[in-house]
Amino acid sequence: MEKIVIIGGVAAGATAAAKARRLSPDAQITMLEAGPDVSFANCGLPYYIAGDIDSRSKLILQSPESFKEQYNVDVHIHTLVTSIDKEAHLVHTLDTRDGTKKQYDYTKLILAQGGRPIQPDLPGADNDHVFSLWTLADMDKIDNHLKQEDPKTAVVVGGGFIGLEMVEALVKRGLKVHVVEKMPHVMSLMDAETAGFITRELKEYGVGVHTETGVVKINPDSVELDNGQTLEADMVLLSIGVRPTLQLAIDAGLKIGEAGGLLVDEYLQTSDADIYAGGDMVEIEHRVSGKKVRIPLAGPANRQGRIAAENALGGQHAYKGSIGTSVVRVFEAVAGITGMSLKQAKAAGIDADAVVVHKEHHTSYYPGAETVSVMVIYDRQTGVVLGGQTAGYKGADKRLDVLATAAAAKIKVSEIADMDFAYSPPIGTANDAMNMAAYAAENKLSGYSPSLLVSELDAFIEKEERLVVLDVRDVFAFRKSNLQGAHHLPLEMLSQNLQAIPKDVTILVYDEIGKKGHQALRTLKGAGFDNVYNISGGHISLQRHAIAVGFENFNVTLLPLEKKSINSKDEAVEVESNQNVSRDEMERLVVDVRTPGEFMTGAFPNAVNIPLDDIMSGKGELGSTDREIIVYCASGARSAYAMQVLQQRGYTNVKNGGGIAAMMSHA
């Protein structure tokens, strides 16, 4: 009879126990857990502290009793395994409650001890108001401190996944929170512009963000940083990383790998044929790079537990590795990463490149559309997707899963360009953000539309001696923020002004999201300009990179932060259109037929706002039918329709002024 002993519970261990029982009704299965809880939702801990999860019991997935009843697995909690005797196939244990020593024999052993938060050697790190978050007991300590001590300020050390989830949780509990991150930006796994989306959200909720600095001392009511700054802190949360639990494996003589985790083969078998392992303690193969890595994530841990159990019972299920797909939500902002970053790909010797697009997550005319951002990283020689990143308030997770699938299956960007994605107006767009990103990658690969990432701009601008930067957005967007030294020339006016642009210079163009920048580039290329580049992702990407890490060789004016609060309820604000028409009917009337929201972003001087829908329904007093009326909109399309409607109603002197850019050129 097989005797399966599993050391460790939670993700990999608990999953291994359940899988083993489903495979073998006769095996004797024993699970040994050093802590008090055998299976709990550790990913849910921050959300209980935040109040999003209202019941602690919901986090408890299994107990020793339920494991016995449901799976006939013997679970022993508070049971520390002190040693493994590989030759005798025995594990020696200590009951941490009463000191009782026992031993358990096995035919196959599965290690699933996971990891532990790194505890820095800092003065004050062992104070009572300093916490880490890994177990239910850790969660209870934090929750009790919040209830009993009523702290007002907190510092979270570490800007990774758990750190930022706890920032949100503590803000929701009413604290003023600062996050301290040693790397150049929070979410250091991600590119700066992706992290910039999260950084802006943090700042808009009043969170202090301190990067490229570390904590040197923790005081009872403050922390001291290595840049000389002191931050108030009634409590401190340490979240600077996870270290695999390896001492037991090392003492047993099991091999440790090059990435610092327990070495296993493709079948999750350790250097001992009768010992398998999975979860945060092992190192596995990265599915894209092929290198050995440690990826402490719940998804891979669960799958490894299943496979380890299957193979321990005689299976030959090869684990294909992980691509490290991970996502975080901070307040309402979501960002994720999968596969390799561009920096990682280049470091691995791959001729890699990337593009960025920003597009509405569903059709713009359906209410509630939000911008979703997609970065696709690919091999320039093959076009194969290596990874990517996404960000947005809605739809980022969907696109991240597409990227994860593409990277794992080694799909080319050209194949994504031709893929059909789910579409109806409330759900998607006819050309999804993934299609658009693939088009951009194809255009860059072919040389049809050369582009630069915002992370490449500093080096590019430094080496270019003769450079002209063109901002092709409208005048109102340009006035609010622009790249230092840029010349403003709206796309609609570009063709008429080509003669003013020297041809013996390098031209860098950008718009808000990259789309009009591409159009401008093609116009310039068609007119004989050779060295033209578009900024991938446009002004949105510039803003995000600037707020995350800034630029060295130029400046971008940061847009003002929107003040947000977790206590404020969303209130529908009705923006009234301006329909105050001059009574002097001899005076020319300029009518902006855009929506009130668009009108508020900037309009032609003295124009009145009568939206197209109102014009069609007969609203708005325009005066006599022979009055000179000029209508305009964003591009000229809606105003052309408005002109037709007014002419049909008998107005004889109506002209289409076109788009806002054309109108402002005559202002």
TrEMBL record:
Cross-referenced CDD domains: RHOD
Annotated PROSITE patterns: RHODANESE_3 (PS50206)
Classification of source organism: Bacteria, Pseudomonadati, Bacteroidota, Bacteroidia, Marinilabiliales
Classification via PANTHER family: NAD(P)H SULFUR OXIDOREDUCTASE (COA-DEPENDENT) (PTHR43429:SF1), PYRIDINE NUCLEOTIDE-DISULFIDE OXIDOREDUCTASE DOMAIN-CONTAINING (PTHR43429)
Keywords: FAD, Flavoprotein, Oxidoreductase, Redox-active center
Cofactor(s) the record lists: FAD
Recorded superkingdom: Bacteria
Protein name per Swiss-Prot or TrEMBL: FAD-dependent oxidoreductase
Residue ranges constituting the Rhodanese domain according to the UniProt record: 463-551, 584-665
InterPro entries with a match to the protein in the record: FAD-bd_OxRdtase, FAD/NAD-bd_sf, FAD/NAD-binding_dom, FAD/NAD-linked_Rdtase_dimer_sf, Pyr_nucl-diS_OxRdtase_dimer, Rhodanese-like_dom, Rhodanese-like_dom_sf
